[in-house]
Amino acid sequence: MNKIKSQKIEEFLKDLGSSSPTPGGGATAALTGAMSASLVEMVANITIGKGKYQSVQGEVKRISNKASGLSKKLLFLADEDAKAFDKVMASYRSRNKAKIKKALQLATDIPTRVSRLSKEAESLGVIIAKIGSKNAHSDAKSAVYLARAAYKSAQENIRINKKALAALK
User: Fold this and answer.
1) 106-124: string of b/e by CB count within 10 Å (b at 16+)?
2) Vertex 77 angle, CA 156 and 3, to 5°
3) Per residue in 22-51, pLDDT tens?
4) Left, alpha or beta for 35 (phi > 0: left; psi -120 to 50: alpha)?
5) CATH code for 7-168?
6) b or e along 65-100 (b: 16 or more beta carbons within 10 Å of the residue's beta carbon)?
7) pTM check: above 0.90
């Protein structure tokens, strides 16, 4: 599998639809969160410099910067999630309980981070939908909905990995 970060969308979707378990739901959750944050950033950037929104320029610039950082972190986590799942599969093949636990913990930690960062993107989306350019309101709302989907998807990955960890005890 190629790094998600450097893949063309068509290539990623082909990999996603293949019989390979990676990339899967976790990587897609992270990528969806990254798209949400990028939409927030776009709405903020459309708003910056517009006289009608002069009173919120400082906050909008802060949102733009924060969203940009979130997008980069979430994109990084998309690749990390795929790597973590590959480690889980390898650990099961090894039949080493300690390795399995360690791999499952990593596979739980990454979607936990995706979940937290997606919630941040959602919060920024809610704010920018209220104060940002009204011409991009639907983009801001789309960012909110994508962040919620990323959060819920990450939560599913957390649940299944915690269930697997509990079964090892």
Assistant:
1) bbbebbebbbebbbbbbeb
2) 115
3) 999 999 999 999 999 999 999 999 999 999
4) alpha
5) 1.20.120.680
6) ebbbebbebbbbbbbbbbbbbbbbeebeeeeeeebb
7) yes
